[in-house]
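Sequence in, structure out.
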Amino acid sequence: MATPSATLNAPKSIDDLKQLLRDDLKVKVAGIDVDGVLRGKFMSKDKFLSAAAAEGFGFCSVIFGWDMHDTVYTQELSISNRQNGYRDMVAVIDLSTYRRIPWENNVPFFLVSFLDPVTSAPICADPRGVLRKASDNAAAHGMTCIAGVEFEYFNFKETPESVAEKKFTRLQPLTPGMHGYSLLRTQLNQDYFHALFDESLKFGIEIEGHHTETGPGVLETALAYTSALRMADNAILYKFLAKSVGLKHGVLPSFMAKPWGNLPGCSGHIHVSLKDGEGRNAFSLSDVDRQHGRPNAAFEDTRYLSQDGEYFLAGVLDGLPDVMPMLVPTINGYKRLVGGEAFWAPNAVTYGYDSRAASVRIISPPSVSPSATRLEIRVPGADMNPYFAMSAIFQLGMRGIRKQLKLTTPTLSTYQSDPARKKEVVMLPCSLEEATKAMMRPNSIAREVFGDEFVDHFGGTRQHEVKLWNEAITNWEVERYLELA
């Protein structure tokens, strides 16, 4: 079984845990729902220690029976419903996730995973369980899943109260103008800007890069490469951290994918690779091929990608249209993709060497060292659930390796240099409704890889989201039709 990278000072036993908490009164715990929202509570130290020793405690399953605004799903789904009385699940404490929350008086914090109370099997749609399954699948083939995440996010001089009073309109950006990689703009709100970085390190989230991005009040934060499950934990907790730190500085950060129609959206790019049993990057070339590249590469762009790396890429491209709700789970997320290359957001099944216009960017020699060879999946927005997004990428990639899928799709540069061939490009679904239908259709690759139970439950939650959207009346509709229709 694949194991996540443990946090610093994480306890290895109940005795270690008791010693670690000797001066504490309470503990904070949280699990993750399908929308990537942390759901948790405080527990007394005694209750927590008892639960840790007993391998779990009861947690209401309704967090898998309602949406991000606590509205019960419009259709009965399998995990939590009226028929089973929204019964408890078993929440299992993951001791390897130990942290202390520096902005909450250093209270100890742990993540949990959810099990079925009858079978003790992982809940089919528990995000941590789904990603662990993907990691275990890779481990069974001698591989370790490694990942990094980059978040772009708007920041506003607002509070939850002020945005509600304004009805989410006329929001004030943290800074004006388009200033990517600016050294000046960060000085306007440097206490907040530096707190994001500094508190992350205290919270066990290592950061590789932190800077302004193009757009009013936009920041980008790149989280350091680590094992996939630890990376997903770090990603979900970075959002929690940013919002918590923001509250203390009068700033509201937003990971919404496309807040404004006329500005670039917010990405959640994911960098991925595999390590083999010897700890070597499985996407990098052997010593023999490193000087001139792999002679049997399908295309020039994959010359410095290993054969397994090319199979992995082929698997991702083959399954991408069928797993889009796992990468882009919201109504708004598809608005980010509509502009395509004009807004640096890919909307087609494309790839290319060091291409930021493609859905999958190959990062390999000669631009980086062989050990840094990886793929950057550029489809997800900042609103993604990182557990589901990484699960989709690694399960599709391992499917490509297992089936030894041939890479037949030409590189993006082929279509750019020969416009007549653009009609060959496979476009990605352009709405959550279309994407969900593709994922849920019989014999979809999503069903092959994730199974019917997950697809039916998660797909049902996306159908709920689509239903709410289809029933909503937007300002655009009123402004366009009220007077002249």
